[in-house]
Amino acid sequence: MNARERSRRETRRRLIEQGTLLFSEQGVAETRAIDIARAAGVAVGTLYLHFKDKYDLLRAILFEGIEELLASLRALTENPPPSLPVFVRRHCEIMVFFVEEHPMLCRVLFDPESVRTNVSTEITEYLVEMQKKRHRAEIKKKELASMPDPLVSAHAVVGMMLHILDWWTRHPDQITRERLINTLTSLRLSGWYQNKPCIEKDVSS
Question: Which of 82, 165, 166, 198 has the fewest beta carbons under 10 Å from its own?
């Protein structure tokens, strides 16, 4: 990599970092491209060399930032533990840990403007597709107590998870991480799975 390419990548990195910070603090709608450029120490024209507009930057922030989460979920799906309750709990842990470790990114993901412009919707649809495939596999193995529609049940799970995690990013002091994981696991296991007790590590939290 030559000096010019290193400089280009460093500028892009600063734009993504400052965009994430400003979007999370000020909101996507209230943040201007020029604000991000100034925070990154470049002219606004430089931002447009890397991104079409602030929404193109928003898309890059979310898709690059969320890739760590998607990679962990794909790995879990491709190599699931033999016990279904353990799989569900591990899935909840991955989601909760990610939100806890990336609060600014998640505030941007759940920002109303991100939803309005369908950037976060694409990520949601990807999560739904992953969950739908998992439910189809569970139905095929007859692990479900009932036979729900995979698409509807996938939307139900993802919608519940994202809604609760959005709330938790804004009110982290109202429930501990462990209790949140226990509750989410219990909710997901109740009603659908036959003889699948919730696995809790800390029922007293």
Answer: 82
